[in-house]
Design goal:
Length: about 80
């Protein structure tokens, strides 16, 4: 079932960003220089899993930006 996007985006690097819905963090990678994005992972557990998804998909990301998230999704604001 699709979940409604709550509207925030967190840029993690030149080819990586995240968003959230009511159930999970959605990790995205840039398709091309024109700005298209696609989902590469859905994480409802820990921030370290987000980092793993990013690394496994060849994304450049700023660890400090990622650490602005709570340690676990369940601790995210609704």
């Amino acid at each position: 079932m699709a979940q409604k996007d709550n509207g925030w985006r967190l840029t993690l690097g030149p080819n990586a960003r995240m968003r959230s819905d009511s159930m999970q963090w959605v990790v995205q990678r840039r398709k091309d220089a024109n700005g298209g994005w696609y989902d590469i992972g859905y994480v409802c557990s820990k921030r370290d899993i987000v980092a793993r998804v990013l690394r496994e998909n060849g994304c450049e990301f700023d660890r400090a930006a990622l650490e602005t998230l709570p340690e676990q999704f369940k601790d995210s604001a609704p």
